[in-house]
Amino acid sequence: MTSPPAALSPARAAPPAHRSRRPLPPWLAPLTGAAVAVAAYLLFRGTAPLPHDDDAAQFGAVNDVRDWVDANRNESPVFLFFVNYVRLAVGGLYDVLHLVLDGLGWVGLIGAAGALGRLAGGRRTALVAVLGTGSFGVLGLWEASVDTLALVLAAVLLSLLIGLPLGVAAGRSVRLRRLLTPVLDVMQIMPTFAYLAPMVLFFQIGPASAAITTMIYSIPPAIRITALAVEQVSPSAVEASTSLGATRRQTLRKVHLPMARATIALAINQTVMMALSMVVIAALIAAPGLGSDIIRGLSRADVGVMLPAGIAIVVMAVVLDRITMAAAARGPVPPGASSFLPRLAVPAGILLVTGIAARLLPAEFPREWVLRFAGPVNEAVNWAKFSWYGATEAIRNGVTEALLNPLQTVLTTAPWWLVAAVVLAAGWRAAGARPAAVAVGCLLATALLGLWQHTMETLTTVLAGVVPALVAGLALGVAAARSPRFAAVQRPLLDTAQTMPAFVYLLPALALFGATRFTAIFASVIYAVPPVVRLVEDGIRNVSPVAVEAARSCGSTDRQLLWKVRLPMARRAILLAANQGIVMTLAMVVVGGLVGAGGLGYDVVSGFSQRTDFGMGFAAGVATVLLGIMLDRITQGADGRPSPRKSP
After folding, report:
1. When comparing pLDDT for 535 and 460, which is higher?
2. Where is the composition biased (Low complexity) (predicted)?
């Protein structure tokens, strides 16, 4: 009997084919959501506006709190036994530092800077320190520069006295690190203006309030970087120290701190840079120094007044950066006087010679050495304005009419619930449910503060500045990662750009475009590009060489290698770059309130200049923080989201 054909055999019969469901394309959900949002806007625009009211009850409540504080400053135990003593102690520290620096005279201070540079980094660093410090007098800003330097030193000393021990403790305690992380996140998201109002409320205006504000602003990097340095110390070294019977204190002193020395020095460097950027803005609360010249120049649109102070700030930043970075790069002094004394001999000689010269020469910087160029600068600015008026006016008006005005109209006329729904959907898709909930909560809180309309105006300028900053940063970062020669040319420019305080970026923008909203956007793009470039470049450079080599062996071209391997694998770094670009753009746009940007930045400035608007300025500072947290939660949360998988 013959067997049945294979096709008819039950054992060999093929199972019925199941049709696989074709997955939806990944772009369909965002596109559908955008279409629904547009349709809802067209149907409901203008139906639930939240217009701005200068006399909102929330602002009056803050003014009442301020009046109570002023009335009870010398009666309440909180002020009598704590706040007033803190203000007096910090003010006393500033006075002592200022007395010492001023007592050295111009020759002595230049010599002390040179000696410190020689001790930290050698001849080149000493030369930079001497020339940089001497330039303060050449610019005609010696007294103002000494005031700023004393304020920076006071704030940095306080930041390090608090931040380094906290950082060490956080590096050794996971529980403390988790407790500090959200606080530090908020502190680093907060734009500089947001720190001013609470400090004025408790510590009044003046050097003490400015130093405390600067200390709070600059302390997060001291804590974060120190904690990271201690946490990353080799566990085997710690285990070896413990096995030899060392106590926790001995292990900290003999193992953790020596091995984390270089990174802790970097924390000091970043603290100094942050403090220097803040003391300029603290001029709004009567901080002495170079910031007052910049504020005066901004209020008058006088670039000739601002430029010397801006140059002095940049030079001071470069000098302090070079000294601290040289100290971080230099190895520890080996034990024994024979190795230490030669290193100390030259700086001691510089101090001795300049100390003698300071006694023989006049205490004031020679007036004949001062360069006066405010007049020529203003003439050049006026010439550029009139010569380039057609181009600059066309750019400014084109961007304003084609982008800013329509975008602001959409955001300010859209119902509040629609904007909240869009933020919720964008946050949920980019970062997840919890960050989306936080983002929406922060957005709605700005409405409760009575600042919805001004928040939307600020969001308009932020969005308009973020897009070109990210495009330019991504392009330059990719170019630097692919070309070592281009990276070598670009690196010193980025170093200089990242040491410049935020106010300095307003100078070229103000000279070209005047005091307008576009000026703040232009300055914010320049301000945000350097960190974006660095993060993108580092992310692409750190892509696994194995993956790159595998793609090359499969015949991938350079373009395919970039789009299929490098950019997808550098996704986390690129998202972090976007996060930093957004936060820095927000910070700069708020500073742009001084040059006509409007929105929350103008409210903050108005709150300091007019007593009746203090409540609105205080609330605007809080709203700025909330807006920053909203944008940060969406973009920072996206960094931890898995990449969308391609359908097979």
Report:
1. 460
2. 1-17
